[in-house]
Amino acid sequence: MDSLAAVPGTGPATSPLPVVRKARGPKNFADLPTDRCVVMGILNVTPDSFSDGGQFVAADKAIAQGLKLLYGGADIIDIGGESTRPGSQPVSPEEEQARILPVIEALAKAGALISVDTKNVDTAAKALDAGAGIINDVSGMTYDPQMPALIAERKVPYVLMHSRGDARHDDPKAKYDDVVAEVLAELTELRDKFVAAGVAPELLILDPGLGFSKNGEHNWALLRALPEFTKLGHKVLVAASRKRFLGSLLSEAGKAAAPAERDNATLAISALSAANGAWGVRVHDAGASLDAVKVVSVWAG
Question: What is the mean pLDDT of residues 247-251?
């Protein structure tokens, strides 16, 4: 077996790193299933993410959770080192990289296809060097102007998400006359800028950006309009897992359901998204969503 064990009590993690199974060889984007919606499992290597902040901030725990996602059926593992929940604090690219690069290297060795949730160009480049295969950028309309050149040079899939501002704060830009039409138009504008910079259209994955510059009503409208997004001719990713609008939906006595109590609702959205043409869903409970999208695939024939 290949081992990633460290000497106990040394380094930032004070326990041995997990022993990973024999490497299966790097998994490529082209290896993803085409007969069903793909499942992207979320791995937050952060102390302050809204759902699981602090659970996986140590490298050994993050790797163990990544392996659990991988062997539990996640097609992609999406690794992030900076929270974007309301009220969270930004971190430097150096801190972000210190959190995620060891985890990327370990999980790539285990054969995982890794997406990196970052808006920083330097982090994106170093993550690709460490073994990541996809960049998932939540910056939306405020993207780093150097990002298109990096994606064009590296020729890697890129998740282009809609957002008008910083999700950490109440956003005055979260106002729309027609949320579906405006998000479609703004995503198309972003798409065109990346294509003009040399990014191949087939490498762009569109994400409506649920919860980013949007309230609950906006999120539901965008989900109902999912077929309109698939008509743009790109793969579409839906990232609804455990988000606040689901907590509001499931509230009792005026109290929103806690993040961990939102998985059943997330599962329903995964199934409905798959049935309405989504290429992928980004979720915390990858195994359950995998079951759901498999059912949809067989149901649809």
Answer: 95
